[in-house]
Amino acid sequence: MVGAARSTSSGPRSRAAAMNCRAEVLEVSVEGRQVEEAMLAVLHTVLLHRSTGKFHYKKEGTYSIGTVGTQDVDCDFIDFAYVRVSSEELDRALRKAVGEFKPPPCRPQDALRSSGSDGMGQISLEFYQKKKSRWPFSDECIPWELWTIKVNVVNLANEQERQICREKVGEKLCEKIINIVEVMNRHEYLPKMPTQSEVDNVFDTSLKDVQPYLYKISYQITDTLGTSVTTTMRRLIKDTLAL
Questions:
Q1: Can you tell me the distance from the alpha carbon of 34 to that of 168, in angstroms, rounded to the nearest whole number?
Q2: Distances from the Cα of 14 to the Cαs of 43, 79, 176, in angstroms?
Q3: Which of 16, 67, 155, 236 would suit a FRET pair with 8, their CA atoms being 20 to 30 Å apart?
Q4: What is the pLDDT of residues 128-163, one digit of tens each?
Q5: Distance between CA atoms of 6 and 14, rounded to whole angstroms?
Q6: In degrees rounded to 5, what are phi and psi of residue 160?
Q7: Helix 35-48 × helix 159-184 angle, to 10°
């Protein structure tokens, strides 16, 4: 299930290490209006590789798996297209989470997407499995993979810079997607296929047309900016203008 809330932990990487969880960190620098599309491209790509078709059990230990449809998505503010699972329910869930990470400009103290000033934040996608506990204790959630996307938002001066940024962000996103696919192709840990009675401990079975591994989304937003990624993006734009 999706749980989009501000993270109050000491940080995804240290949390992952403490729990022996595989962790991957990506960093992108975008214009405010590109935040939503960039985040959806990355999150959808990860979940495309972390989802299966619906399980159809005939009897305990015997089941078939439905197909997973896909569709292409063209971005409006980035020269980029990506492939996502063809599930409107999953898409709505991710858009809701990203929308909370990227609040509307009417809340300037939190508005990561506001084009009026620079800002930064990070959104984390954590996959976990449940371990049943004895009454009266609640089930334990054990993370096994964590993706953290660090986002730097730059304020651009004019439409010419925005057009260059549109192209450069598309190129960088392409590199990130290739990196994600390479990670997914490694032979690393995945939860074993569960029995019918335990399927809800490994997969989110609430969606009608797809079955992702259990996951949750959290985010952080800060007001300061000073990363090398943002400096690199500004340099790319400046160098392109000088040509």
A1: 12
A2: 21, 34, 22
A3: 155
A4: 999 877 777 777 899 999 999 999 988 888 899 899
A5: 17
A6: -65, -45
A7: 10
